[in-house]
Amino acid sequence: MFDFDDLERAIEAKVCEAPAVVRAKVKPHIKNNHTKVVRIWAISDLHTDDHHNKEWLDELETKGAANDVLIVAGDISHKWDIIKDTLSFLKARYARVFYCPGNHELWGNAQEDSMRRFHAILQLCQQLGVETAPAEVAVGDRRVLIVPIMSWHHPQWDMEPEIQGWRGLLPVDQMLSDYPLTHWPEGICIQDGSAALAIDKVNDELVDWIDLLQRRHEYQEVLSFSHFLPKVENNPEKRYLTYPNLAKGIGSDYLRRRVEELRPNLHVFGHTHFGYDLEVEGIRYVQAPLSMRGNSSSERHSRGTTVALGDFPDGLPFSHPFMAGKLRDGLGTARAQGVAFAQRLGTKEPGQGAWSAYVERYGRRPDVTPGEPRWISDFSPRPQDAARIQRQMVKNYRKI
Ligand SMILES: [Fe+2]
Ligand SMILES: [Fe+2]
């Protein structure tokens, strides 16, 4: 069984020995900024290197957003110019923009160190006025604390039983692009959780975490966000996934621990491109991904009902797929794929999200591990596909 403390002890030294990155000399405290904001929006997985998504962003109605806050929960692009342009575009339209890098932002060539790249992105954000550290916003007369949590995935996060009768499903390191396309300092890798720990430690450079926890009670509401998943409950059960090993490349125990310590009213995440809105142990978890492009081969087309949060999709093709922006009783509804949290973060009527609605209705039974379901045997890649998939990952990365 995976022992969180053992892992931490075992790899702590490796992380500390890693080449120096940009480190704060003094742990900063929470920034106060009493700009009055009207609404807080959240979205993930903008993937604006896809021109369909870029066009969607260009058309986004932001006239009434000058006093709003936008949270972007990772995955803009792996291209520097696109990350910069997208964040600049958003910063020009919203009063405040909060952001954490996703996995795509760390993709690079073999000579690029992913840790250095991570810190370079944080520096870019600083130059652009995009916020990556915990900070206060004032919504009406209420103090709201927004807490970005930096994270990376590790396979040990998945502790749920495997489905039975697997016939050679590809292991996660042969299936996820993050393995060939990220490059870590010596001694750090994704597989043993040391990359997840190294990124988690960045949080302690961004804020005095203990101080933040001690001041948690001063805020009427707390909203945290990350790119990856804190809880296994944020993911559909393995038997429903076409690639059950997905669970080994999406979450972080370090992130889970921070969220459980902080106990936000609401935590926004991204990465899996499943629209989600589900309360787990008193914390509401939401994912509102823009996801991939709107042509016939895209996931917005083929997986529309699971990508969507709320009423999306209301028809194909998606000329202007999200952001209907309808408000009800002063609260943002989940119609918009960017979800608005306006009055009380914890009490907004939940959006749908196919899988979170399913869990709400039927519960979660990870102990049910049937023989390999048909949709897995039909669609999941096999060992004989490994070399082709690896080649395709690198090819796609170079092409985008
Ligand atoms: Fe994504
Ligand atoms: Fe992602």
Automatic annotation (TrEMBL):
Superkingdom to which the source organism belongs: Eukaryota
GO molecular function terms noted in the UniProt entry: dioxygenase activity; hydrolase activity
Keywords recorded for this protein, A-Z: Dioxygenase, Oxidoreductase
InterPro entries found in the cross-reference section: Calcineurin-like_PHP, Metallo-depent_PP-like, Pantetheine_PDE
Domain named Calcineurin-like phosphoesterase: residues: 39-273
Keyword field contains Oxidoreductase: yes
Any Pfam family hit: Metallophos
Name of the molecule in the record: Fe2OG dioxygenase domain-containing protein
